[in-house]
Design a protein that fits this description.
single chain, 161 residues, PH-domain like, elongated
Length: 161
């Protein structure tokens, strides 16, 4: 039996990816500039040579670890699709991990955590006793705009269902 194609459009669809503003390249450039500035001092005062080199090695190791962590984090993706009768959350991890969850729109609550300036700092879907974090890796502005659009679509889905 052939598969039936759907012509229904979702009420809301978004693919969430981590904010990529922090780059290890900026850290490497800063480390090179610091080395250029510090070289005359390290040559002029030989007592600082060993501690200075140890500091630069530690900074380099920290940048390598930071770069690896950012590369792993950048492969995390959440796809959220809201239909009138169903909410799908597909989480793709850095490896072959795939987690697909489906909920009825009336069975979930969107909970927003805000700071003292009313900016959204965290979003979660509550389903019974379970809390599912949404876009924890997003920048603060992206969280606010996503929460606004998703909240409106979730209200429409509840009214339609």
């Amino acid at each position: 039996m052939p598969m039936q194609a759907t012509t229904t459009q979702p009420l809301f669809s978004a693919t969430l990816r981590p904010d990529r503003t922090l780059r290890a390249v900026g850290g490497w450039v800063s480390l090179i500039i610091a080395a250029i500035v510090a070289t005359p001092f390290l040559i002029a005062v030989p007592e600082f040579l060993l501690p200075g080199l140890a500091g630069f090695l530690l900074a380099g190791a920290g940048l390598v670890v930071f770069g690896l962590r950012q590369a792993r984090k950048s492969r995390l993706v959440q796809r959220i699709t809201l239909w009138p009768d169903q909410l799908e959350i597909l989480t793709l991890g850095p490896g072959p991990e795939r987690v697909l969850r489906r909920f009825h729109p009336k069975a979930v609550r969107l909970i927003l955590t805000r700071d003292e300036n009313e900016r959204t700092t965290a979003m979660a879907l509550i389903h019974g006793e379970e809390a599912i974090a949404l876009g924890s890796f997003l920048a603060a502005d992206d969280k606010s705009s996503f929460a606004r659009a998703f909240g409106q679509a979730l209200r429409r889905a509840r009214r339609a269902a």
